[in-house]
Amino acid sequence: MLRFLGISRAEASSSGSTSEIWLLGKCYSVSLEEPSGGADPGNCYAAFLDDFSSRIWFTYRKGFEAIGDSKLTSDGGWGCMIRSSQMIVAQGLIFHHLGRSWRKPSQKPYDREYIEILHLFGDSETCAFSIHNLIQAGRAYGLSAGSWLGPYAVCRTWETLNRLNREQGKESLPMALYVVSGDEDGERGGAPVVCVDVASRLCSDFSEAHSAWGPVLLLVPLVLGLEKINPRYIPLLKETFMFPQSLGILGGKPGASTCIVGVQDDKAFYLDPHEVQLAAEIKQDNLEADTSSYHCR
Hints:
Blueprint: E1 3-5, H1 7-14, E2 20-23, E3 26-29, H2 41-54, E4 61-62, H3 80-98, H4 112-120, H5 131-137, H6 151-167, E5 176-179, H7 196-207, E6 216-219, H8 234-240, E7 249-253, E8 256-264, E9 267-271, E10 277-278
Parallel strand pairs: 1-9, 4-10, 5-6
Antiparallel strand pairs: 2-3, 2-8, 7-8, 8-9
Helix pairs in contact: 3-4, 5-6
Subcellular location: Cytoplasm
Organism: Ananas comosus (Pineapple)
EC number: 3.4.22.-
């Protein structure tokens, strides 16, 4: 069975372990044995923490403008799946624009691409991927302010929001988006199958207005157990974190979603959205912005 660790528990647990850590396709060999190639285990551990804390972290927010016709100015207690999904998409944008090796700089000014990505997820209708716009796009799937939603609904919501943005001539997400599930049965335990022809067509459609072949973001909504994860799925789930294309896994249980980004033995490392912070909106031209609330360390 997997044990789930946030950053503080990850620091305590991983520092005493000698097993490999896989974090979104990157391997960190933390070993007490004589390292090969001159690698320092302590440096490997520090590099893991630097990588982990460079991942974009979205949490509950309070004090933003009311969502739609509701009077809600906070998503505390119900927005964790939305925040987890924002983390997945944000990691995809970071990898696409800045590469897997990017780490949050210790000095300002920051990379323009980094600031522009954070701006997309601000808590305002003017920001393309805000919680406000996600809820509006997800109404057809039962999404409303104050209600929790499952993985199928949130994946389809992103698909709809991406389509609406493209219809308006916006390219906030510079990639095709493929939800690998024919219908909601995929969320009830069915086995989604990636159709290469469909993925190729989506990439081709996206690339019609571009000179290069387009990337694709695969979202796979499914249930891996009823009350808890079926143990037989765990080895395969752990392998996905070895893929260089991995963006993580969002989910958990109803009302308690997290964004899982890495594994080590029986431990899974995650970014937890269940912390209420003040609403934030990063201006896209402010390269000196305070981005500390978007990182867990």
